[in-house]
Amino acid sequence: METITKVNTRSQVTSMYLIKKAQMGDKEAIEDIVTRFIPFIIKTCRRIYIRGFELEDLIQIGQVSIIKAINNYKTNRRYAFTTYAVSTVKTNLYRLMKYKVNSVSEISLNAVNNKGYEIIDILASKDNVEDDIIENEEKRRLHAEINRLSHREKEIIFWFYFENRTLDEYAREKGICYRAAVERKRGAIKKLRRQMGQI
Q1: What is the dihedral of CA 52, 53, 54, 60, to 10 degrees?
Q2: Whose CB has fewer CB within 10 Å in the chain, the N or C terminal residue?
Q3: What is this structure's pTM?
């Protein structure tokens, strides 16, 4: 059975076009990119305790780190912007922790915050937050590309993939032959893949 292929998990979370706009100082593009990383920043910052810093302070540092990643990212790099941005946030928070270690009582990698997480968790988290970000962005992009299809193309995509109904039922409902329903679905999928840069 033909299925919609998932976008490669190593693909860009943000388009090169959006990154380039942000690098040229487009405030909306910068804000859009930063907003996409907010869930990751909050989740990461909740696992950290640094004396004298509130959660909001750490979140702000995370947001500034994303802006720093935008400015420093080379669009011809072989790895995704998401990977670079996630690494930048973690590196900046880790540097802050190192800087604040003025005494044993200041901070410890095994210090536990009020959520029960140790600081060491940020260095080797069991959660693959980067994959979560990529997956959410892929879903958003898929829905955006589906919305660009014609009414008839969207209809058959939702019928088959989202409502889990058969092409035989679709053909009967629309008063067309089964072969025409198959071709209609195939054409919609081909167009969707082309829009998503898969072919």
Answers
A1: 160
A2: N
A3: 0.48
